Amino acid sequence: MDPDYSLQDVVRCHLCEIPVPPLHCVICNTHLCKDCEGKHLSDKSKQHKVVPFNLRLTTSIPGCQKHSTKKCKLFCDQCNIPICAVCHSSKEHQTHNVVNIFIVLESKSQAAQKDLQDLENFIYPKYQEIASYLSVQKANLKENSKKLIIEINKNGDDLHKEINTIIKKLKSDLDEDGSKQLSILTKQETKITRTIFAIKQSIAGLKKLLDSNDVVSIVSEYKSRNAEFRKLPPKRLVSLPRFVPQKINKDQLNQQFGSLSASSIETVKDFYPKETPGAETSPSDRLSRKLSAAPHIITEIITEYGAYKLNNVSCLSDENIWICGNDNIMRLYNIQGELLNSIQTKSKNKPYDIAVTENGCLFYTDYHDRTVNIVKNARIQTVIKLQGWIPLNVCIAFSGDALVVMISDDNKQTKVVRYSGSLVIGSIQFNDKEQPLYSSGVSVLNREMIFLNNNKFISENRNQDICVSDCLACAVVVVNQAGKLRFTYTEVPSSTKESFLPIGITTDSQSRILTACYNNHRIHILDQDGQFLRYIDNCNLRSPYGLCVDTRDNLFVAECHTGKVKKIQYYM
């Protein structure tokens, strides 16, 4: 047997897979049969050098260091070195696994080629993406710092204005009070001065009268004024105003002025998907999961919510789910239907939407309080406080960022904002023509008189597309990570006479998009490019609302009409 083929599976032509090809292109490292040689040489984009298969790379085969006249046509796996036939027959390698060096060369070349493709097509672009993301984060950090400095300066100016106003008023009050007191004292001083002048005149007159010894004048004309002068005026006791400064309470002043929320850098594991495009996902059977022709219910969870009171569901794990509805309690159930935990919202308002982070923390939006909150270790922290906008639905991206749908106070604008913690790192609102991507306002489903107050559920797909179920627009709107519109899905044409009212939305491991049609009582399944695949309409769904999938791609459906959560298997 030809030694080139003796220690391997049959080598085949790389073009047509005919076994034992007689030729090899050294430049392209390609095995060729006679029929494929011409086709290969017709590619003029590069030079070619076709040689007999057994002479491929002969000139590059290393010489044996122990036997100088021999070529190392073999490779010892245990020693990880090329060896010659003499070495192979020696005791040193006699019990080792030895293979044809061309087999190793072929295997390593193919592995190197795969590594090259992986580096060029996935790893390098991902690192570029990370570098770009870090640049954006740095720019956002600098921009946010500038914004905060402006706000701090403005707040300082406002505080200075208030202090100056207080100082001005105190000075004005002091001047006004001083003027009143001074006027009173001046009037009394004028009166006293006149009296003193009169007394001086009386003294001078009496002295003149007594010196004259004029009997007639003394007896007839003299009248005493001493009784008048003895009536002394009241003494004015002026209580001088004093300024009593308050001791400056620095803690209270800091609290009154405002404070900075602490910044943080969180290390998020598996920030980017580990698998390369087309590579196997975990578990391996999810690589090519096909849709089932007959989706079926695995289990039903009966919750505490009655008719038209259950809204949202989010998977904590394959065994446990968070749900919420028309009260202020968020509840954790296991798939056996047992209530494990209940958490009341911080404001005691009902939560608008819920989402679970990778590390198991619960996010929820508070419509009336304008906040996005996180539950960690049974404690609720407000992460985002909005002004001029109201939070609606929320999801957690694979990066750990929060994607929040929000409407303006006047209900005329809708946008999706990406947050890293409390820091805004992106916003999606308009298409390339500066037209709104998402609808705004309030609509009423007349048939059932259910108010659909701008519900826009949101989910990030595995390809990092952002999918929004825009119920008021009767459409699913999908944009890429940069916010560029990819497609809008508005129901399969002529499939139903009733309106398409998508509510809940989620995505699975195959990048399929699943959305709940509330009024038609079914689930639409789309591929990642918006092509309709099939319905789930055989599970007796009643007003499906919130959706989520677990790690095994089992679908959880929160039924608004019944208050049940149905776990459905829709794949084969």
Task: Give a quick set of tags describing it.
elongated, alpha+beta, four-stranded antiparallel β-sheet, disordered N terminus, 572 residues, 30% strand, 26% helix
Brief description of this entry?
With 572 residues, the chain is of the alpha+beta class.
Please, could you describe this protein's structure?
The chain is of the alpha+beta class and 572 residues long. Helices cover 26% and strands 30% of the residues. It has seven helices and 32 strands. It has a four-stranded antiparallel sheet, with no helix packed on it. A four-stranded antiparallel sheet has the order 8-9-10-11, with no helix packed on it. The chain starts with a helix and ends with a strand. Mean pLDDT is 84; it is low at 1-8, 273-287 and 444-451.
Task: List the topology elements.
Elements: H1 3-6, E1 23-25, E2 30-32, H2 34-41, E3 50-52, E4 74-76, E5 81-83, H3 85-89, E6 98-100, H4 101-212, H5 215-221, H6 226-230, H7 250-257, E7 291-302, E8 310-315, E9 320-325, E10 329-334, E11 339-344, E12 353-356, E13 362-366, E14 371-376, E15 379-385, E16 389-396, E17 402-408, E18 414-420, E19 423-428, E20 443-445, E21 450-452, E22 456-460, E23 466-470, E24 475-479, E25 485-489, E26 502-507, E27 513-517, E28 522-526, E29 532-536, E30 544-549, E31 555-559, E32 564-571
Antiparallel strand pairs: 1-2, 1-3, 4-5, 4-6, 7-32, 8-9, 9-10, 10-11, 12-13, 13-14, 14-15, 16-17, 17-18, 18-19, 20-21, 22-23, 23-24, 24-25, 26-27, 27-28, 28-29, 30-31, 31-32
